[in-house]
Amino acid sequence: MKFLYISLFVLISSSLFAQKSIDDLLRQTNHKGIPYISAQELAMPKTKVVILDTREADEFAVSHLKNAILVGYNNFSVDSITNYVANKQFPIVVYCSLGIRSETIAAQLKKAGYTKVYNLYGGIFEWKNNNFKVFDSENNETDNIHVYSKYWGQWLTNGNKILNGSAK
C-alpha cells in the first residue's frame, strides 16, 4: 500500500511540474488572447516593429534584443508606452524570458487600444536558442542570458545562464 501511495505521488507530481517543451509550458500558462510572433519572423530584416522588453532592469542589463525598450513588468504603465509608440496601429512585439510575463503586458496594451500587439514566442530564451544575437547593457554582443530562476532556466538551451550576476 505504501508503494501505491508513493507511486501515485510521483505520478501526480511529475504531471503537475514536468514540462516537456516550451510548447507545453506556454499552452499551460498563457491564455491565447495575444498572437505570437516567432523568433525567425521577428529576425527577418523587413519586420518593422517596436520591441518592448517586459523583464526587469537587472535581466535587461545582462542581455536584451537589439533596439528593445525596457518597460519592465512590476512597475509597468501603459501610459509610458505613448512615449515610444504614439500610433496605436503600429506593430509592437513584447517579450520576457519565455513569453509569460509579456503576455500580461500585451493584454494591457490591447486593452488600451493598441491593435497590433504580438508576444515573442518563447521569449528571449527561444530567441537565443535559435542562435539570434543578444546585447548587454553596453550594447556588446553577449552569450549571457538572465534566467530569472533556476527553474525557468531549464528552457534556455543555448548561451550562458546568468542568475543574480553569476553563471549557473
UniProtKB/TrEMBL annotation:
PANTHER family: FAD-DEPENDENT OXIDOREDUCTASE, PYRIDINE NUCLEOTIDE-DISULPHIDE OXIDOREDUCTASE. InterPro entries: GlpE_sulfurtransferase (IPR050229), Rhodanese-like_dom (IPR001763), Rhodanese-like_dom_sf (IPR036873). This is Rhodanese-like domain-containing protein. It holds the Pfam family Rhodanese. SMART domains: RHOD (SM00450). Gene3D superfamilies: Rhodanese-like domain. It comes from the Bacteria. Residues 1-18 form the signal peptide. Residues 45-136 form the Rhodanese domain. Coiled coil: none annotated. The keyword Signal applies. Keywords: Signal. SUPFAM superfamilies: Rhodanese/Cell cycle control phosphatase (SSF52821). NCBIfam families: rhoda_near_glyco.
